[in-house]
Amino acid sequence: MNMKRVGTSLALALLFGTLSAVADPPQTRIVCKSGCTYSEVADAVDSITDSATDKRYTVVVYPGTYTKSITMKSYVGIVGFDSASTIILGTDGTCLGGTNPGSPCTQDSDCISPPSASCQLSATAIFIGTGVTETSFTGVTIGNRYPFFWSAGGSSSTTMTVNNCTVGALDYSTDCWYDTGTSAGHYIYATNVTLNVNADCIMPTPGSRFIGRNLTVISSAAGTTGFIRPGQSKGGWYVDIDGISHVSTLTGGTDRLFHWPGGIFGTTTGPILKIRNAVWSVTTTGTTAATQTCVNVGGVNGVSTTGDFEFTNLDCSLTATDASQTLYGYNIGSDADLANFRMHVQGGSTLTSGPGTRADVLQNGTASGFVFEMGSNRNSGTFSGGGTVSTISYHP
Predict the structure, then answer these.
(1) Coil, strand, or helix at residue 330?
(2) Inter-residue contact 45 to 70 (CB < 8 Å)
(3) Sequence-ordered list of residues with C-beta below 8 angstroms from that of 380, at least 6 positions apart, any chain
(4) pLDDT score recorded for residue 361
(5) Which of 80, 276, 303, 385 could disulfide-pair with 312, CB 3.0 to 4.6 Å?
(6) Distance set, CA 61 to CA 13, 28, 163, 220, 346 (Å)
């Protein structure tokens, strides 16, 4: 699409009054709160019936809050004014408590009283159906409980790009990219994106790719299980992120960069994780924020394939304020199957400070391929546990 032509048309529309004075250019839909053909982004997308690889559409969105859930179509891009002023929430939800249980809401504060009453959103902001591919989002905030929600069984050719956006809303239990199935294959490319996380965020599925550049992560005071967290049977995925910034203060929960939980079972292709140039800093203030790790690798329950995890220039900083809290930069589980995995930590640093139990690396099992070559060691007694790793060395 000729973006210069679209920009000229919009400028003329603003100069001469209402946007409706200028017809939407071909393969373009214009959305605003008043004066446009479309007042909801969802309606503009619904109007597109012939998008194709050689006939792509752009939906240009003016500032405002848009509350209808969007069912995306292939070869369609959504371009907002900027992420601060152009907000897509999805369908309004229902109060689970408060003054009027069952009343409509778009955020927790709509439920009025008590303060803990929550707004259960009834739909996602962006729904990606099976086979929907080559979608893009620029300059918007995408909220709701699930900002992006895939139907099960997406195609390996399913691709999405997200640039200069905010994804997620701390008011809700947010999984940034959520897939209901155990097999998918979607490819996500995210650049200059702020992620508001209150649950899990990147949840890779078999055959999927997530390529991230310059990500800012903001979590609620209750933290998040894992910014990157595969679910069950989630081998064969590839995550490559260069540039992560995260500083948080927790009153409860955990706040992990990467969490590999127990319960992962048999896969034929190993996962690949590459994290570079990341800052992950967490301070805990409540006794319910008990155990913090930047990287947590648990049991894998019979995964016979090789996993490959690389962390380059990861600065991990964990601070406790109570002796009941436990801090590990890297917490490696005791499962024997981890011997099939490779972890290489190079450059970066760890800093675990405050009272309680703490260590740079806790290794409870044998993992013969795990190598730690950290750029800076700031703690004494940095290695603990009953297992072994191949190498642990520091190069200040």
Answers:
(1) strand
(2) yes
(3) none
(4) 79
(5) 276
(6) 14, 11, 15, 29, 43
